Amino acid sequence: MRAPFSWIRPEPWGIHIVPADAWVDPSRPVPRALVTHGHADHARAGHGETIATPATLAIMALRYGTGEGAVPAAYGETIALGGGVAATFLPAGHVLGSAQILLEHAGERVIITGDYKRSPDPTCAPFALTPCDLLITEATFGLPVFTHPPIAGEIAKLLEARAENPDSCILVGAYALGKAQRVIAELRAAGHADTIWLHGAMAAMCRLYEEHGVALGDLRLVSDAPSKEALRGAIVIAPPAALNDRWSRRLPDPVTAMASGWMRVRQRARQRGVELPLVISDHADWGELTGTIAEVNPAETWITHGREEALLRWCALTQRRARALALVGYEDEDD
Predict the structure, then answer these.
(1) Distance of alpha carbon 71 from alpha carbon 150, whole angstroms
(2) With 60 as the cut, is the pLDDT of residue 333 above it?
């Protein structure tokens, strides 16, 4: 008798769909890859064939120079992979184009969440809760201490800091794919219509988001500012690495902020010299992780990366069958 889920095999460099000889988010080049989203710890160049949503393929082309062998999969579209395996890409709510992957074979349904969140985000399609027999979930913020606050309150802190420091600028460190665009879109939703100034490394991805229908308003490069004085009272978005870089010296007395789920950990904020920590995450927090498992109620849960031990323990305490996977190449991005 065949063991349950024996057709899907976790390997150190990715999840192998054995009957179709395809891989999900492999960390090394493979002949055929299904990619959940465009962050570098999930997407890479060098695959023979890459199956992903159109937005993720566009992001990969921009970031990694991929294009050849790209196979677009729209949300809700089912693709026959061969070997009796069907794959359907469903919204994950993480960043633009991010997807969960539903795999169906031999009467079994497997969901691979990739990175995901359940909270609303104006820059991407919302997470689609989907029944399955096996749930393969991330656990980046898989500790009870991680409870992400509503983003409206964090954006309000940012705007208050701007109002209180009219002769300075507010320099926000934000991951270039997803976080930066979300912060900008939320600022617009809060009524901030002024020019938002960008580090040059942010420009191309912001343009790509706008090409995919995400309105970001008036954006300009810091390098195009007519003077340092023109940036007083402004909000500037830059990669986290630029917060204490020589580049920031061109800004007028910046108040340093950082948008990340890791800002819940005060020591991380102090280590980075962050004056205004903004707890804004594009990953599920503890409540969303446990709540999703409870709602889906799969026969088994596999935990791919992050804080596996705590989530594994929670599954045991709630009498849920679970195991942690030892995948390599997944990192704590600046989220």
Answers:
(1) 36
(2) no
Give pLDDT, residue 187: 98
For CA atoms 129, 135, 137, 142, the dihedral sign is positive
42-78 pLDDT tens trace = 999 999 999 999 999 999 999 999 988 999 999 999 9
- The mean pLDDT of 97-112, rounded to a whole number, is 98
Question: What does the pLDDT read at residue 334?
Answer: 59
The neighbour count for residue 91, using CB atoms within 10 Å, is 19
Q: What is the SS3 string spanning 41-84?
A: CCCCCCCCEEEECHHHHHHHHHHHCCECEEEECCCCCEEEEECC
Contact 198, 172 (CB under 8 A): no
Among candidate residues 147, 138, 151, the one with its CA nearest the CA of residue 286: 147
Q: Look up residue 305 and give its two tokens.
A: 């990366």
Beta bridge partners of 69: 67
Strand, helix or coil for residue 39 = coil
Name every residue whose Cβ is closer than 8 Å to that of residue 317 and which is 6 or more positions away in sequence.
none
176: nearest Cα among 282, 272, 90: 282
Distance in angstroms (rounded) separating the CA atoms of residues 268 and 207: 31
Contact 157, 276 (CB under 8 A): yes
Q: How far apart are CA 216 and CA 209, in angstroms?
A: 8
Tokens of 278: 């903004």
Is residue 312 within 8 Å of 326, Cβ to Cβ? no
pTM: 0.95
Q: Distance (Å, rounded) from C-alpha 194 to C-alpha 181?
A: 15
Tens of pLDDT along 149-170? 999 999 999 999 999 999 999 9
For residue 322, what is the enclosing H or E element?
strand 322-324
